[in-house]
Amino acid sequence: MRPSAKGWCPGAYAPMTSGDGLIVRLRPRLSRLSLHQALDICDLAERHGTGVIEVTSKANLQLRGIKRDQYKDILDSLLALGLLDETAEIESRRNIIIAPDWEQGCLSQAIAKEFYERLPELPELPAKFSFALDVGKTRRLAAISSDIRIEQSENGAVLVCADSAEKGLTVAPSNAITAAIKLAHWFANTGGNDRKRMQAHLQTQILPDEWQTQARTSHDAPIAPGRSDIGFVLGVPLGQTDSKHLRQLLLSHTPNGIRLTPWRGLIFEGIYNITTPHFIINHTDTLLTVQACPGAPSCKSATVETRNLARALAGQTNGVLHVSGCSKGCAHPKAADITLVGENGQFSLIKKGCSWDNPSRRGLSAEEILNSTDVL
Ligand code: SF4
How many angstroms separate the CA atoms of 205 and 264, rounded? Predict the structure, then answer.
């Protein structure tokens, strides 16, 4: 069973303490920053923190290592940039992942804007409970963790779906948010908050038939690094970059804006060719098969360094490799082909399992893993 991760998510109003200072998480509306906002964020990351910027699997942005005594300054700057919600409560409710290839005036944009206005109508929900807005022509977010999904069926109808249910409820687009809010109330009123996630709740609670009128499509097409219709997609290696590298690219290409993707990527709007050694620019890059959390010394729960080992092992294993600083498995809270978990300064090895499963080997050093041919 997964050890309890933190029961809340960091935000701008609710920074999380980590080994390298505070983590301040931003949830840009429509997962987009203007060029001006993106450049200012690079400045803020350097002025008040370590300059490390992360893109999360919820398409949020995190600034790491923010100095405690400068936290108020960063809040003031985010307010001036239009990146702060009116209240901490609204920020915590705005847990919405949007397929990043939306276009001006499209249905995704209209539904997202309505949802932002109606957030106060949601019941109290667990901190990690989220909504996926995936109504573009191509379904994008099927593999992204979320609890209530608004998506398209094969025939183009809009569906509101409980995560893991085989069918969803067909709605008129203008009723999608009303239905999603109603489904969130069903979850909360039937004890879902104790189970925390929709998928877990549906293991013990039967979803009423009224929510299951039409089959969902199994199609899924995540947006990979490289050229896309709306701009160039950069993968952020292990979800982490440096403000200097990002600023340099922003200034040399001057996109209108950048979009954050839940595959830990950035889309430079209207730019169709980028060459850089600091980001992933090709969908065949082996770094895309590796997951690693910040590890030591950034996270206090870690007893091992994770990212250098993950980079060194990229491409050396079959399938997905996950290097986790501890058994909580924040970077990849699901099964991987190979998982290396920090334990008392050394690594445990789990094959075809999660970071919290029983390891087949314990007490491995990073050198042993790198130099031995029979460990992985
Ligand atoms: S999995 Fe990594 S980031 Fe998460 S608590 Fe453990 S060491 Fe920290």
Answer: 33
Residues 72, 77, 81, CA angle at the centre, nearest 5°?
145
User: pTM for the full model?
Assistant: 0.92
| Span from the CA of 327 to the centroid of ligand 1 (angstroms) | 7
Report the relative pairing of strands 265-269 and 257-261 from DSSP bridges. antiparallel
Write the CB contacts of 215 (distance below 8 Å, at least 6 apart in sequence). Answer: 153, 154, 166, 167
Q: Identify which of 17, 330, 350 to mutate to test ligand 1's pocket (most ligand atoms within 8 A of the CB).
A: 330
pLDDT tens digits in sequence order for the chain, 376 residues long: 666 556 667 899 999 998 889 999 999 999 999 999 999 999 999 999 999 999 999 999 999 999 999 999 999 999 999 999 999 999 999 999 999 999 999 999 999 999 999 999 999 999 999 999 999 989 999 999 999 999 999 899 999 999 999 999 999 999 999 999 999 999 999 999 999 999 999 999 999 999 999 999 989 999 999 999 999 999 999 999 999 999 999 999 999 999 999 999 999 999 999 999 999 999 999 999 999 999 999 888 999 999 999 999 999 988 999 999 999 998 998 999 999 999 999 999 999 999 999 999 999 999 999 998 777 8
**Spelled out in words, what is the top-level CATH class assigned to the domain 286-371?**
alpha beta
Locate the domains of the chain by residue range: 16-89+230-269, 102-215, 286-371
* Ligand 1 interacting residues, C-beta cut-off 6 A: 293-295, 299, 301-302, 324-326, 328-330
52 φ/ψ angles, rounded to the nearest 5 degrees: -80, 130
CATH of domain 16-89+230-269: 3.90.480.20
